[in-house]
Amino acid sequence: MSNLQNTTSSSVIFLLTGVPGLEAFHTWISIPFCFLYATALSGNSLVLFAIVTQPSLHEPMYYFLSMLSTTDLGLSVSTLVTMLGIFWFNAREISFNACLSQMFFIKLFTVMESSVLLAMAFDRFVAISDPLRYAIILTDSRITQIGVAIVIRGTLTLTPMVALLTRLSYCHSHVLHHSYCFHPDVMKLSCTDTRINNVVGLTAMISTVGVDSMLIPFSYVLIIKTILSIASPEERKKAFSTCISHIGAVAIFYVPLISLSFVHRFGKWAPPYVHTMIANTYLLIPPVMNPIIYSVKTKQIRRAVIKILHSKDT
């Protein structure tokens, strides 16, 4: 019994996994991941810098975009060290406390991204349905309150889920099946009852990402209803075009997330490296694609980014 208790202490060391069966190619596999990380970090930093430094972008829509870029930066940094550490140096060991910290921040930034996407949907709804009162409804102080609420929401819902892992005993293998600490992965290594952990974890995700995934489509039902009520075809087209970037951001966040869930549940026939590669890329797709989508589809962002890049050249 004492041995089981010892395994619950912070001295527990977990072993992360690279790409099972392709260990000999980790150095080559690291090349596209390095490119993705570089793209995510530079792209989101550039968008964030543009919004902060360009007065023309000090509007509600771009404040929410800056929140999205911040969460994408956090999500990228949360996995960068362990993932590249495995590919470059085969540094698989991670302490129990470091594992819990990484898990918390990955989940926090994921929930925050979902919340920001919901806030952006609300922003688009207000801008299209009530443009004259847009600036009155979404004031700077209200946007700040929304940002603080997003952080508090994620922290309060996820802290119990992560904290409850400290009560478990880890007497099985300490080998995790991902390049980062994944909540279901850690629970599988426990030799004690995890039903409470499962319930709390499921409740946390349903009450955040689950609720957001229903409210965002509902907001677009209202947006489409408003757009269809506009008499001018040109105005309808213009109103809908302001939503294209956000729709793209929602798709690249939820589609990989749903795909990962399906693979974990129904893809048991697939080779282990398929699960790992999907799990690794699902966290990188939104941070990589969001700045590209907004730079391409949003004229103001594109102009601001080009202006910054030109100023650095001169």
From TrEMBL:
TM segment ranges: 35-52, 73-91, 103-122, 243-267, 273-293
Sequence ranges assigned to domain G-protein coupled receptors family 1 profile in this UniProt record: 43-294
Stored InterPro entries: GPCR_Rhodpsn (IPR000276), GPCR_Rhodpsn_7TM (IPR017452), Olfact_rcpt (IPR000725), OR51/52/56-like (IPR050402)
Leader peptide range in chain numbering: none
Subcellular compartments: Cell membrane; Membrane
GO-annotated biological processes: cellular response to lipid
Gene Ontology terms, MF aspect: G protein-coupled receptor activity; olfactory receptor activity
Record key words, sorted: Cell membrane, G-protein coupled receptor, Membrane, Olfaction, Receptor, Sensory transduction, Transducer, Transmembrane, Transmembrane helix
Chief location bin: membrane
GO CC annotation: plasma membrane
Topology in membrane: Multi-pass membrane protein
Sequence similarity: Belongs to the G-protein coupled receptor 1 family.
Job description of the protein: Putative odorant or sperm cell receptor.
Record-linked PANTHER family: OLFACTORY RECEPTOR, OLFACTORY RECEPTOR 56B1-RELATED
Protein name as it appears in the record: Olfactory receptor
